[in-house]
Structures are given as structure tokens and as C-alpha cells.
Design brief:
Number of strands: 13
CATH topology: TIM Barrel
Shape: globular
Helix content: 25-40%
Strand order of the largest sheet: 7-2-1-13-12
Order of helices and strands: EHEEEEEHHEEHHEHEHHHEHEHEH
Mean pLDDT: 87
CATH class: Alpha Beta
Distance between the termini: 19 Å
Strand content: 5-15%
Largest sheet: 5 strands, parallel
């Protein structure tokens, strides 16, 4: 990814970086005390894998993030999805983080797991089904915080979107739910084996909710990163969140880089829980982006903030978001690019069949031409091919 031309915010570490983040309002549920020695911004020199450039992608190139692994081809957040993403050339793999009853960080998109595991087929866990209020929404199902790691390990992962991705469902039952430590180990080993740095973009899910029920995902994450000598400005890790307070806490108390996720609408959960009114639309303004630059290293918007769509699903004219973010000193990591017609704008669809692949290559290229610094995609092979073609063509453009 190309970041050298982007000015970095005053008062922050002037290292090119990408990340995923949380944090405008600090709520009382987020820890406020620093460690005994405070954050140490020096690089970790005890682990060669932790020695990466200031970006998470190839030097001088845009990065391709494998969204939950190669989730367009394998059930998301599984070893199989991550291994395939690495084979397809992804620069970064993304584990979403939730917690077990015994406080272990595990890799699921949501803490409610009926859609991504076979928990409903386990009669021994039938009485664990319940309804919880998460980020203001009532959710019924089975939740990771009600299972010990040992219990969770008896489950198997399954495809979340079987109607759109029936081929993925053939892999149902093959893999367990991985821990974050296992994903770290996988990325480290793949980096050694391939000779290229496979970076990590962990996303902290539902931070405010987990704090309210007695967990501390930020401290758990920082402790794991420190055990692995990865809490460094130069380590191949970038932490993301849709919330804001936890990213601010990480900015003060850790060394890891972060990126603020922006949803297409709504309010960050921590802001809403604190009675605030700041919306994602507010954060996407030039003023909001300058505010993000005070605590995060990058911004990760929904595609709609860069290229919105009309009521029919057709793309509208690009916005000024990328330029505004770059002026604030923030690299832009856009999400999420998927090949199925269901997820593409009208002009990129191949047919009316929502499950058939459309022109994802062209869609990714459109955003690269608008100057984004990285893309999240369920189809890393397509993202890498589009990035490589764009980079080959770039010297001929004026």
C-alpha cells in the first residue's frame, strides 16, 4: 500500500501504518490505568517475525486484507479460510475477537454462534440458549461467554451464508473455533514458510457489552500481544473496532497500531451506551476524521462512504472521503469487497442471481483508482489480482 504521500497527524508517531479501531467517548467501563512502566514505543527485537515495515502490506504497495480469511471460499474464521487466504497472496488476515467464559480470546464474527457453528446440534448445550441485549439489540442464541474454551472446542464451524455460498458448506464440520493465539501462530509460521510477512488485523467485537458483563477484551488482547512480542509500532498487527473508547485506551496504554471502523449508518455502541450523539456520519466528516487522527492510525470506512449507491443499487459519484482522510493523515482501508452479485453495485452484477459472481475485479480497481490504501475482501485472489494489475498499470498513468 502507498502511504508515503500521506501526511501523518501532528502529535502521533510518524510511522506509516494501517489499523482498525475504536474510540471517541471514554466510558467508565473502559480501563483507565496504565501499566506499571507505561507504554514503550520501541520495536521488539527478540522476534524476527515482529520486524515488519511501517505498513502492513508490501513496501510501496496497497494492501489486501483477507476478510475473516478467504471467507468467499471457506467458512469464515477457520484455519482453512486463513490458510487459503495466505496461499492466494493476502497481506493481512483478520480474526474477529470474542471471549469465552474462562476469558480466552477466540475467533468468531459474533459472540452469538448459532450461525457459524453446529452448537444447535448439541443437545448437551440446549439449555444454554438464551436472549441477550447486545449493542442495543435483542439477540437469541448461544453465546461464547457461556462456554469454556474446552466446551467450545467440542463444536465445529460451519458456513454462515449457505444459500449464497453453497460450495463453502461442503466444509462444514471440518474445523474447530480457533483461539487468537492459534491464529498468531498460524501467521507466524506462514511468514517463515513463505518468506513474506503475513500481518494480523484483529477486530475487538462488542467491547462495551463485554465490559458490562465483567470482561476486559482490550487488556486480554494487549497481554497476548506482549506475550508474543507483538505490542510494537513495528509489529505486523493492527487492531480494529467499530467502537471508539477502546481505541483511545489502546492509544494511551499500548504500542499497537489501530484503525477506526466506520459503519454505513448508526452510532458507535460505546457512544450510545454513554448517552452520546456522535454518529458514524459525524466521524466521516473532515472534522470527524481529524478527531479520529488524534487516537487512531487509519480509518476503515464502509464502501458507501467512498462510493455511495442510489435506491436501485447503482453507484453514485465518489465522495471526497479519501481526500479528506488523507488530509487528516489517515490511510484508508475500505470494506468489504465480495464477488457475489448480492453485494455488488447494480452496474457490476452479472445477472439477477444474487449468488453468482459479478465484476469484483473492476469494483476493487475502481476504489484503488480513487486512492484507497487497502481493501478488505472475502476473495483475496481477486483482490490481489486487481491490486497487482493496478500497480503494473500505474506507471503509465499521468
Amino acid at each position: 500500500m502507498i502511504l508515503r504521500s500521506v501526511p501523518f497527524p501532528r502529535g502521533r508517531r510518524a510511522t506509516p501504518l494501517l489499523a482498525v479501531a475504536v474510540g471517541l467517548l471514554v466510558t467508565s467501563s473502559i480501563p483507565t490505568s496504565a501499566g506499571a512502566h507505561g507504554p514503550d514505543r520501541g520495536p521488539d527485537r527478540a522476534d524476527r517475525w515482529a520486524q515488519s515495515p511501517g505498513t502492513l502490506g508490501p513496501p510501496g504497495r496497497r494492501a489486501v486484507y483477507a476478510h475473516r480469511g478467504a471467507s468467499g471460499y471457506r467458512p469464515e474464521h477457520t484455519r482453512g479460510a486463513y490458510e487459503l487466504a495466505i496461499r492466494q497472496g493476502a497481506d493481512v488476515i483478520e480474526p474477529d475477537l470474542v471471549l469465552t467464559k474462562d476469558g480466552v480470546l477466540v475467533d468468531r464474527h459474533e459472540n452469538e454462534i448459532s450461525g457459524t457453528t453446529d452448537v444447535a446440534d448439541h443437545p448437551e448445550f440446549a439449555d444454554r440458549k438464551r436472549t441477550a441485549t447486545i449493542d442495543g439489540q435483542q439477540v437469541t442464541g448461544w453465546f461464547t461467554e457461556d462456554f469454556t474454551l474446552a466446551e467450545l472446542r467440542t463444536l465445529r464451524a460451519k458456513e454462515r451464508l449457505p444459500d449464497l455460498r453453497p460450495a463453502n458448506a461442503r466444509y462444514d464440520g471440518r474445523w474447530k473455533v480457533p483461539t487468537l493465539q492459534e491464529v498468531v501462530d498460524l501467521a507466524r509460521e506462514a511468514s517463515r514458510r513463505t518468506g513474506r510477512t503475513i500481518a494480523l488485523a484483529p477486530e475487538i467485537k462488542h467491547s462495551t457489552y463485554f465490559h458490562a458483563i465483567g470482561f476486559d477484551p482490550e487488556r486480554s488482547l494487549v497481554e497476548l500481544l506482549r506475550r508474543n512480542r507483538l505490542d510494537s509500532r513495528r509489529s505486523p498487527v493492527i487492531v480494529q473496532s467499530f467502537e471508539t473508547a477502546n481505541l483511545k485506551w489502546l492509544d494511551r496504554h499500548a504500542k499497537v497500531r489501530t484503525v477506526q471502523l466506520l459503519d454505513a449508518s448508526g452510532t458507535p455502541a460505546d457512544v450510545a451506551a454513554a448517552g452520546g450523539s456522535t454518529t458514524y456520519a459525524d466521524l466521516a466528516t473532515p472534522t470527524g476524521l481529524r478527531g479520529i487522527a488524534r487516537y487512531a492510525d487509519a480509518v476503515a470506512p464502509n464502501t458507501a462512504w467512498v462510493v455511495p449507491r442510489d435506491a436501485t443499487g447503482r453507484s453514485l459519484a465518489p465522495t471526497s472521503f479519501v481526500d479528506d482522510a488523507h488530509r487528516a493523515g489517515l490511510p484508508v482501508v475500505v470494506w468489504t469487497f465480495r464477488r457475489e452479485n448480492s453485494f455488488l453495485p447494480l452496474e457490476r452484477r452479472s445477472s439477477a442471481d444474487p449468488a453468482q459472481p459479478g465484476d469484483l475485479h473492476g469494483y476493487v480497481t475502481q476504489f484503488l483508482r480513487l486512492g484507497v490504501d487497502a481493501v478488505f475482501t472475502d476473495n483475496p485472489d481477486v483482490g490481489v489480482a486487481a491490486r497487482d494489475a493496478f500497480e503494473r498499470d500505474r506507471p503509465r498513468r499521468r
